[in-house]
TrEMBL record:
Classification via SUPFAM superfamilies: Protein kinase-like (PK-like)
Domain annotation Protein kinase: ranges: 1-138
InterPro entries, per database record: Kinase-like_dom_sf, Prot_kinase_dom
Keywords: ATP-binding, Kinase, Nucleotide-binding, Serine/threonine-protein kinase, Transferase
Name under which the protein is recorded: Putative CBN-RSKN-1 protein
UniProt keyword Nucleotide-binding present: yes
GO molecular function ontology, one term from the record: protein serine/threonine kinase activity
Domain of life according to the entry: Eukaryota
Gene3D superfamilies named among the record's database cross-references: Transferase(Phosphotransferase) domain 1
Organism encoding this protein: Streblomastix strix
PROSITE patterns per record: PROTEIN_KINASE_DOM
Amino acid sequence: MMCFRPFYQMLSALAYLHSLGIVHSNLKPENILLDENGNAKIGDYGIAQKMINKQTLKQARTEVYAAPEVHSQNKMIFASNIWTLAVIIIEMLTGVHPFAGRNQYETVENITKGKMISLPQFIQGELKDMLMNMLNMV
């Protein structure tokens, strides 16, 4: 289906970065760019980091898109990017951050506690399974 192409392209871009040992340290919706043909690109590599010893300390990031281990353990791993991409995809599909709170502090608290909103019925089957697996990688 055409709507899944950008998701595949985002995952492919992350896989390529990870194959080079690079983790994107500030993945967020504003850094997902679509060209005139609907192709997805990941931008803002200004704070992308080379992984050392399979983890890297957090630097600049957007708190509400940082994976749980970034908040709780002050580390970013390859799986952190996958978790964040799942959050972005869910938000693209629903218009709502899956860990949304009344404010940024509450959203971060929901992330660290794994307190996610229920996914709408239209997210089901393989798509739902894939997203849940991406969120459970960390």
